[in-house]
Each structure stands twice: as C-alpha cells, then as structure tokens.
Amino acid sequence: MAYVTEQNLTDVVLERWKAIPDPRLRQVMQSLIKHLHGFVREVEPTGKEWFAAIDWLTRTGKMCDEKRQEFILASDVLGVSMLVDAINNRLTTGATPTTVEGPFHIPNSPEFGSGENMAKEAPGIPCFVTGTVRDLDGAPVKGAALDVWQTDGEGIYEAQQDHHDVWMRGVFRTGADGSYCLRTVAPIGYTIPMDGTVGELMARTDISHMRPAHIHFAVTAPGHHPVITHLFQKGDPYIETDVVYGVKEPLITDFHKKPAGAKAPNGETVNEPFYEVHYDFVLQKTSKAQLKGAAS
Ligand code: BEZ
Ligand code: FE
After folding, report:
1. Which pLDDT belongs to residue 264?
2. Nearest-CA residue for atom 2 of ligand 1
3. pLDDT grade for 68, boundaries at 50, 70 and 90
4. pLDDT over threshold 80, residue 212
5. Which among 156, 168, 201, 234 is placed 20 to 30 Å from 56, CA to CA?
6. CA-proximal residue: ligand 1, atom 5 (nearest)
7. C-beta separation of 70 from 196 below 8 A
8. How far apart (Å, rounded) are the C-alpha atoms in residues 226 and 286?
9. At residue 14, does pLDDT exceed 60?
10. What is the mean pLDDT of residues 214-231?
11. Which residues surround ligand 2, an ion (CB under 5 A)?
12. How far are the Cα atoms of 82, 93, 268 from residue 70, in angstroms, in the given order?
C-alpha cells in the first residue's frame, strides 16, 4: 500500500472507499470525500478551528429532537434545502413552482368547507384566499386538497405555541369547477429560530435572519404531481432577502386591501378592513411524465 503524504492522501482514501457494493452509496461517498478534502485543502483549518467545527456540529445534533431540527435549519440557511427541492421538482414551465416545506407543517389538519375560517381565534387582519386548481391544459382539478398552514398575525405557528389547540392550519378542497375559497388572517414576516447553533452562526454575519410573510400550501390531487409551496405577500420588506432562499417570482402575490363593510368572496360582510388574495395553482399530471430528469 502507498504510504500517505499530504499530496496523495485524497487518492489513497478514495481508493479505499471504492469497496462499497451499493453503487449509489459508493458514488455518494466518493463525491463526499473529494469535496470534503477539497474544502480542507482550500481552507487549511488549524487544529483549533477544526475542533470548533466539530463542536458546532455536536451542539447542533444535541439541539435536535422531535420538535426541533437544527440540521434542517442549517441546510435551509445554506440554500441546500432549496437546491434539493429544485432538483426533485423540475416541473414543466407553467406549473406552480415548489419551495421549501419548512419545519412547521403538522400532518392531519382538520378539513374545512369552502369559505370557512381556519383562523377562528387568531389575531391578525382577516384574509380571504380564492382561486382555482387546474392542470397544464387549463382543465379544472376537482377534489384537489389544499393543506394550508401559516403564522397568525403575530408571526406564531402552532408548533411554536405552548397550548395544543389546532392553530392556523386546515385542509380545503376544490369544487367541480376547480375553485377553492378560504378565510384566514394575513401572516407576517418572522425570524427563523435564533437561539441555537444556526442563530449563533448567523449572528456572526450581516445576513438577514427574516422570512417574508407567506402562507404555506401543499396542493395534492390523484394523478398529479404534488406541489408544496408558499404564497408570498408582494411588497414585504424581506422578499428579496429571504433567509432560506424560498422566494420564486411566480409565488409573489398581491394582497388587496378591502375596506370595513365590504363583502368578502365567501359572501360574508366583514366589519373591519381585510385582504383578498387570488391565486390559481397549476398542477402537472404525473401520467404525462413531464418531470425533466428529476429523481423519481
Ligand atoms: C418556514 O417557512 O416555515 C421555514 C422554512 C425554513 C426555515 C424556517 C422556517
Ligand atoms: Fe413558514
């Protein structure tokens, strides 16, 4: 065997790590070693710096439990979550683009009828979201499920609450014409959690730790590629500096302000100013297999 030198070490390690029967794992490990060694060769960390990095990773792992995932947050702020999302959702032009799911989705939300309010006790400005779900040919998708979650008007998700009531989430379905209508309150921009190791790192940068106001949607229908995405409020001050790089131009939406006493899209008269948002989701049929080279 070759005795190691600084120069040949990467090649020696790569040669040894070829002994992996699973070809995908072999590919992953070869690439990881190549890039990791390349990083270390470029940065040339001191021993102290390398142990500081190991300590940061150790503390990041220790922060993770079933409620908190600091590694996902690290992946989010480094743009890796959005890159993985993009690679796995190469949809045809015209389909609604996807964006990060984020850590605050809670499964099995209650079902609401069309126009019902999913924000009953929540603080915030009333907000009605209407639109359609269609396929790429413009045909309405009947019975599509819109799983919706967001912050209340004070920037708080259910997962960040102490009490355990269902908060700011619900499932709505499209009618025969593909239309949907829901009542909620307008979300506001919020900071990612800054009390952990990711916050510690962000605090040493001049990078904004804010997300612009958004409503999360997971839109699913049999025979269609699911779309996990957000609608962002146009004009939000953080739209161009979203800390997790989640904003895509087609997802920026007008929140139209309506005066007190105006009639809302669900037919009710609202005695305070409110917002109306209109958005048409476009789903791609899975049968057309139009995914451009994404891993299935
Ligand atoms: C969110 O949209 O809820 C989110 C996404 C990534 C990191 C933190 C929050
Ligand atoms: Fe969010």
Report:
1. 98
2. 102
3. confident
4. yes
5. 156
6. 102
7. yes
8. 9
9. yes
10. 97
11. 102
12. 16, 33, 42
Entry pTM: 0.91
Q: In this model, does residue 294 exceed pLDDT 50?
A: no
Tell me the CA distances in angstroms from 214 to 39, 156, 275, 276, one per residue in order: 36, 12, 14, 14
- Residue 104: phi and psi, rounded to 5, are -105, 10
Measure the CA–CA gap between 33 and 224, rounded to whole angstroms. 38
Residue pLDDT, tens place only, 72-110: 999 999 999 999 999 999 988 899 999 999 988 999 999
91: nearest Cα among 250, 243, 213: 250
Tokens of 101: 């799911």
DSSP state of 83: H
CA–centroid distance, residue 263 to ligand 1 (Å): 33
For residue 56, the number of C-alpha atoms closer than 13 Å in the C-beta half-sphere is 14
Selected from 2.60.130.10, 2.140.10.30, 3.40.50.300, 3.10.20.120, the CATH number assigned to the domain covering 75-295 reads: 2.60.130.10
Q: Is 242 exposed, middle or buried (0-12, 13-18, 19+ CB in 10 A)?
A: buried
Partners of residue 149 on adjacent β-strands: 169, 216
Question: What is the band of 175 on the pLDDT scale with cuts at 50, 70, 90?
Answer: very high
Query: In which band, very low, low, confident or very high, does the pLDDT at 185 lie, cut at 50, 70 and 90?
Result: very high
Residue 272 Cα to ligand 1 middle (Å): 30
